[in-house]
Amino acid sequence: MACFKLITSALLLVPCLTQATARVIRESPLPLARSSPYDDSRVQDHPDKKLLANIRNYFDAFARNDVAKIKELQAPEYTMTDITLGVIRAPRHAWNDFSAGFMNLISDLSVEALTLYGSSDPGSFSIMEDVVRFKLAQDPPPGAKENLPPGSKKGDVVSMIIISVIWWTEDGKMTQEFEYGRPTWKAFTTDPWDPRAEPMCGKAFHAGLKE
User: Fold this and answer.
1) How far, in Å, CA of 89 to CA of 176, rounded?
2) pLDDT of residue 197
3) Spatial separation of the C-alpha atoms in residues 112 and 191, rounded to whole Å
4) CA 64, CA 197: separation in Å to the nearest integer?
5) Residues with Cβ < 8 Å from 68, sequence gap 6 or more?
6) Beta-carbon neighbour count of residue 141 at 10 Å?
7) SS3 for 101?
8) Alpha carbons 90 and 124: distance in angstroms, whole number
9) 102: helix, coil or strand?
10) 116 φ, ψ to 5°?
11) How large a percentage of the chain has pLDDT more than 90?
12) Which 3 state secondary structure label does DSSP give 98?
């Protein structure tokens, strides 16, 4: 009889445990495959796990050039503003066409997240500092050269430091995206900045301005 009561109690707990497990799965982003070209290991402590999942979905698709997935994550009213490229509130279709042309110029794209702030709440936005790296699959055309390091040519590996701001809907779709970036410089490092070791306007900062 004692054994029967124990089994009965355990069975009654199963629905509760199942619901709790499902809730954890929904709220915690699944780990990316090791082969993912998107590395978010440095932002894992962000408390908004839904935001982490949204960011992962998008930047993993971006780094893989998964056009279908990217379009799926864009709300119908999506617009892109890319200050570096001089693009202001480009509608979804126009930006996707522009992006497709850029993707034809590069290969081996990867994204490394450095810092992440913000919220996944509807109408809220996230701000991510990231480094984008890629190889030039061909010599850049004249229109693209001004946004690349001087003398860039086919086979060169280029890295850029980017600020990405994204506005989200409740179901994880993007309504607006804002980007600003520039090529990295010789003294550039992704090591965390330690203000005790060097002031903000230290030699590394000035070296970046001189490039």
Assistant:
1) 8
2) 66
3) 12
4) 37
5) none
6) 9
7) helix
8) 20
9) helix
10) -145, 130
11) 59
12) helix
Distance CA 189, CA 111 (A): 15
Tokens of residue 77, six digits = 């009213």
Residue ranges and CATH numbers for the domains of the chain are 32-210 (3.10.450.50)
The pair of structure tokens assigned to 160 is: 């850029």
First to last CA, the chain: 80
**pTM value?**
0.75
Centre a 10 Å sphere on the Cβ of residue 82 and count the other Cβ atoms it contains. 19
- Segment 116-160, tens digit of pLDDT: 999 999 989 999 999 999 999 999 888 777 888 888 999 999 999
Q: What string of DSSP letters covers 14-32?
A: HHHHHHHHHHHHHHSPPPP
Mean pLDDT is lowest, of 18-22, 112-116, 205-209, for 18-22
Interior CA angle at 66 toward 65 and 69, to 5°?
A: 140
